[in-house]
């Protein structure tokens, strides 16, 4: 081959690394983001949720970007819709033993 010719075999490792990056990092993140957006769009009164700060509550009102949570009888707080991270199974707040375990701590 001449000096200035194009050889695709030299670029296969780079192409494979880009494909692995897409399938191992980018695509799963897009899937999680899509699921999170669907969960936020489907929030309704009565749903039991957990926020990013660890507060558990029952949805008592839903506005555009604000969700009102009842965290105890007659105690309501307002949080941004983006702060809600998990939709809990129905009855979780009535039976605390059924709560999923917390994630492992990095420093414990």
Task: Summarize this entry quickly.
This protein is 28% helix and 27% strand.
Explain how this protein is built.
By secondary structure, the protein is α+β, with helices and mostly antiparallel strands. The protein has 1 helix and 5 strands; from the N terminus they run αβββββ. Strand 1 and strand 2 form a beta hairpin. The longest helix is centred in the first third of the chain and has 30 residues.
What is the topological layout?
Layout (H helix, E strand, L loop, with lengths): L11 H30 L6 E4 L4 E7 L3 E7 L2 E6 L3 E5 L20
Antiparallel strand pairs: 1-2, 1-5, 2-3, 3-4
Salient structural properties:
108 residues, alpha+beta, five-stranded antiparallel β-sheet, 1 helix
Strands across the major sheet, in which order?
4-3-2-1-5
Uncertain spans: none
| SSE run | HEEEEE
Radius of gyration of CA atoms, rounded to a whole number: 23 Å
